[in-house]
C-alpha cells in the first residue's frame, strides 16, 4: 500500500486555509462547497466537535470532510482540524476571565510597561496585515457613489471616527447607527455602487452581519475592518482590512482599529487631492465660526 504524503502546499494556518478555500470554492463539488462553507462559517466548532458531529451539522457525510481535507493538501481530517486547533490561541477570552487576571496584577510599573509593549505590537502588525489590502480599499471607496459606515457596541468608536474624519472632506458619507430600532429603515438607503464599511471584532454583533447581508442584497460593495479574515463580516466582503486586538486588560483593544481608520482616511484624502483639502478648510472654518471650538487666546 502506498503511503499518503503531506502536500507541502497544504495551508499551514487558518488564514491561509480560508484564502485557499475562497480561491478554490467555485471549482469545488457541491458537497465540498457545503462542507467548506460550514468550516468558514463556524471555525470555532471545528476544534471542539468530532468529525461526525461536524458532518451532521454541515449536512454532509464524514467521508466528505476527509476527502475535502485531502483535496486541500492534508493527510486527512485530523491534519486539517489541527489548523483550527492552533487558531484557538487567538480566540478572545471571556471578559470575566480576563478581569480576574487583571485584578491579580501587582506591580503598576510592570503592568504599564507590558501594556505599552502590547499596544506597540498591535500597531506594528498593521503594516504586515494590510500591506497589500489598503490600496484596493482606498480605490473602492474613492469610486463609490455613497459610503455607509457601521460599527456596533465596542466597534462603534472606530466606526464613528471613520465617519467623522471622512465627512470633513466628503459629504456623501453617512453612519448606520440603528438608534431606537431604526436599523432596518437605515439599511434601505443602500444602493448599487455604494460602499459599506463595517467595523467589528469578536465577539461579533448580530447587527453587523445584518448590515453585510443588506449590502449584498442591495448590490453594494462591502469593506470589512475586522480582527480576522475568518470573521463573519469578512466572508462576503470585497476588501478586508485587519487589525489585532491583543490587550492586557479585560477587553479587546480597539487602539489598532482606530489607527487603521486614521491611516485609511489619510490615504483617501491623498487620493482625493486638492479638492478635498479645500473641503476640509471650509469645514474647519465653519466649526470655528459657529463656536464649536473654544476660542483660547
UniProtKB/TrEMBL annotation:
GO molecular function ontology, one term from the record: DNA-binding transcription factor activity
Name this protein carries in UniProt: DNA-binding protein
Assigned keywords, A-Z: DNA-binding, Glycolysis, Transcription, Transcription regulation
Superkingdom of the source species: Bacteria
All copies of domain SIS, residue ranges: 137-274
Keyword Transcription regulation: yes
Organism: Pollutimonas nitritireducens
Keyword Transcription among record annotations: yes
Chain ranges of the HTH rpiR-type domain: 15-91
CDD domains: SIS_RpiR
GO biological process, one term: glycolytic process
InterPro entries named among the record's database cross-references: Homeodomain-like_sf, HTH_RpiR, RpiR-like, RpiR-like_SIS, SIS_dom, SIS_dom_sf, WH-like_DNA-bd_sf
Lineage: Bacteria, Pseudomonadati, Pseudomonadota, Betaproteobacteria, Burkholderiales
Amino acid at each position: 500500500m502506498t503511503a499518503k504524503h503531506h502536500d507541502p502546499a497544504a495551508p499551514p494556518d487558518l488564514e491561509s486555509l480560508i484564502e485557499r478555500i475562497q480561491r478554490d470554492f467555485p471549482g469545488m463539488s457541491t458537497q465540498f462547497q457545503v462542507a467548506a462553507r460550514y468550516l468558514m462559517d463556524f471555525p470555532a466548532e471545528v476544534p471542539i466537535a468530532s468529525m461526525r458531529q461536524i458532518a451532521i451539522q454541515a449536512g454532509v457525510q464524514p467521508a466528505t470532510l476527509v476527502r475535502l481535507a485531502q483535496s486541500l493538501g492534508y493527510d486527512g481530517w485530523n491534519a486539517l482540524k489541527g489548523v483550527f486547533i492552533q487558531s484557538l490561541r487567538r480566540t478572545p477570552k471571556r471578559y470575566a476571565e480576563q478581569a480576574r487576571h487583571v485584578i491579580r496584577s501587582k506591580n503598576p510599573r510592570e503592568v504599564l510597561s507590558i501594556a505599552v509593549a502590547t499596544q506597540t505590537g498591535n500597531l506594528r502588525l498593521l503594516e504586515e496585515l494590510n500591506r497589500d489590502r489598503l490600496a484596493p480599499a482606498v480605490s473602492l471607496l474613492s469610486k463609490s457613489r455613497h459610503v455607509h459606515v457601521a460599527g456596533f457596541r465596542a466597534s462603534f468608536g472606530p466606526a464613528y471616527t471613520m465617519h467623522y474624519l471622512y465627512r470633513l472632506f466628503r459629504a456623501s458619507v453617512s453612519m448606520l447607527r440603528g438608534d431606537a430600532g431604526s436599523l432596518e429603515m437605515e439599511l434601505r438607503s443602500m444602493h448599487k455602487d455604494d460602499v459599506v464599511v463595517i467595523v467589528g471584532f469578536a465577539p461579533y454583533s448580530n447587527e453587523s452581519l445584518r448590515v453585510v447581508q443588506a449590502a449584498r442584497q442591495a448590490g453594494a460593495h462591502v469593506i470589512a475592518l475586522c480582527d480576522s479574515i475568518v470573521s463573519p463580516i469578512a466572508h462576503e466582503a470585497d476588501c478586508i482590512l485587519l487589525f489585532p486586538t491583543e490587550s492586557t486588560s479585560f477587553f479587546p483593544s480597539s487602539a489598532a482599529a482606530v489607527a487603521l481608520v486614521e491611516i485609511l482616511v489619510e490615504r483617501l484624502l491623498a487620493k482625493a487631492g486638492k479638492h478635498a483639502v479645500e473641503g476640509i478648510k471650509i469645514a474647519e472654518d465653519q466649526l470655528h465660526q459657529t463656536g464649536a471650538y473654544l476660542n483660547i487666546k
